[in-house]
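It would be a great kindness if you could assist me with a short task in structural biology. The full record is reproduced below for your convenience:
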Amino acid sequence: MEEPETKLNLFEYVSVAFRYKALVVLCCLGAVAAAYLYTRRQPILYESMASAIVGQLGRPAGPRDSIALTGGPTPGVTSATMFVTLMKTRRMTEEAIQHFGLQRLGAPTTADATAMLAGMGDFSFTSEGALVVKFRSTDPELAADLANYYLEGADRLTLQLGFSEAKRQRVFLEKRLPEARTTLRQAEEKLRAFQETNKSILFGEAASRTMTEAASIRTAVRGAELGLEILRSRLTDKHREVIQQKKQLEELKKQLAQVEFESSMLLPPSQNPGTPRESITFPFSRVPELALELTRLDAEVKLHQTLFNMLQEQMVQVRIQEAKEGPTFQILDRAVPRQRTLAPPMQRNLIFGGGFGLFAGVGLALLINAIRTGGAGVAAAPAAVPGEAEGER
């Protein structure tokens, strides 16, 4: 004797659903009603958008004429990508929380506000380089203010951090300029005090020429030392430019030593009594102490004045280069409230709710049918539609 087949085919599924149509319809209506109520309870979001055009960061730097600005081009990076990265940093988020406050953001703690801002914002850029900032919130004013704040904050943060080689050069020169100015003033005070104390010191023409030559070489030595210091601030000692600068400095020091200790000069008339003779000469190292001190102080003033002027010139060049290397940032459109309303998707939710209710009703009908028939199939015990059992009584 064959056992009754317990598996249901498609026709039997439809038959069961039809027999329990009231239950299926009730499940569908219940799911649709639940989806409707859920959608109505969802808040309406308002989206605001701000945009800016950004240029290229780190354009290759042009040739530099001075020793302080020698170096190769700076590799370029996409400015829009950099701005997007800045707006996603924790520093930017913390500044926004501090600016707007937890109460306006509607967050009890800083951690909650951080997570909320991460979900509210959307940062992107187009292929043309336009930066787009979008924020969504139930408060239209807050969404617009956040979009504008993040856009302006990214530009401000870029200027604070500095992403160019010229910025690092400028910071170095800003530190050296006050030091050079102070040193120059001190040297001028020493020279003035010495001249007031020793007003009778005179030099011969040969001595003046030798002192001028020595002062010129000293200036070149200090300039080479400054250039080497600047190169070491961004390059290693094994770099080709650093090695070349060291060799140049050594040559200048050799020339200075040769002038100071090997040159000779005619004695001035005040120190050569009688008729001055061309053959009476003194080596540079034996110049009278006061004359040598006066010459040294005068040369020191000229040296520090030259270095100070050179640093000022370098500062102007670096600022020009920094302006060229920095990203261009121009706000195109500022965010305004209620640019776009993001209402909950009522139609989609109702369709999903109806579909879920249909499957739930059919599944429940099949379960009830299986319990009634004991797994013997639809034909074994036809199911009664809810309400039919009371009529049969």
Remarks:
- Strands lie at 45-54, 121-125, 130-137, 264-266, 281-283, 329-333, 340-342.
- The first strand starts at residue 45 and ends at 54.
- The two ends are 36 Å apart (CA to CA).
- Residues 45-163+329-342 form a domain with the Bacterial polysaccharide co-polymerase-like fold (CATH 3.30.1890.10).
